[in-house]
Design goal:
Number of strands: 0
Strand content: under 5%
Number of helices: 8
Shape: globular
Structural class: mainly alpha
Length: about 240
């Protein structure tokens, strides 16, 4: 059971059944792949940073990343080839968004990146040392919160497509900041269960090496989610 929708046990089970003899997936290997995907994401962001023409890439990059992400989710064996494509496309998108934030609030992007990486490493240490244990009760709570937030995003997107203003995305009111902090906390705790699930799968199932790319893709999804919410949170606090 995992909070990240990318990490479903059936995918690892199918991979094990179709795996040939060879190297197997490991937690460390997954973390290494995650850092590589993150590097590609940063390279993509640099290419669109400060570019006046980059705004035109927002829609195609968002759609492309979504399509590629769905393909990887349903076909994990494509992850070694498509996860880098997804990371680069997300980088192009994030570079445009981040540049727009930084023009209005100089320095905010470096702060958001620093906080995101700090949260990631903190959660990794808390998991590896056993300070935070992924108990079933905590898992259910974070899972419920993650599903609720996902539904909120989807409903908000639909409403915005019909011209309805969703105040959460533009408001700097205390209630919006509080909700933003809660979403950041949920995203952060997803790392605990991402690490736990990967650890579980590497010890229970003999998943092939390509599943490291699949799991790295899942971790990158959480990283990007957390970064965007932290960027939004910092922007709100500056406006107050």
């Amino acid at each position: 059971m995992a909070t990240n929708p990318v990490f479903n046990e059936s995918a690892f089970r199918r991979a094990q059944e179709s795996a040939s003899v060879g190297q197997q997936m490991t937690l460390q290997g997954t973390i290494n792949k995650t850092f590589f995907l993150l590097l590609l994401c940063v390279v993509g962001a640099f290419l669109t940073w400060g570019s006046a023409q980059a705004a035109a890439l927002i829609t195609p990059c968002a759609i492309g990343a979504l399509v590629v992400g769905l393909i990887i989710s349903f076909k994990p064996q494509t992850a070694p080839f498509l996860a880098p494509v997804y990371a680069f496309a997300e980088g192009l998108l994030l570079g445009t968004i981040s540049s727009a934030f930084n023009q209005q609030m100089p320095g905010i992007v470096m702060q958001a990146v620093s906080v995101t990486l700090l949260v990631f490493f903190t959660m990794l240490v808390l998991y590896r040392t056993g300070i935070i244990k992924p108990t079933r009760g905590l898992l259910i709570g974070i899972l419920s919160a993650t599903i609720g937030i996902s539904l909120f995003y989807v409903i908000s997107l639909v409403l915005m497509l019909f011209g309805v203003n969703v105040s959460y995305f533009t408001s700097a009111a205390p209630w919006a900041i509080a909700v933003n902090v809660l979403i950041c906390a949920v995203a952060a705790f997803n790392f605990i269960f991402d690490f736990h699930f990967i650890d579980q799968m590497t010890s229970t199932y003999s998943a092939p090496k390509y599943m490291e790319w699949y799991a790295g893709f899942g971790l990158l999804v959480t990283l990007i989610w957390l970064y965007i919410e932290i960027l939004r949170l910092l922007g709100r606090t500056r406006n107050n």
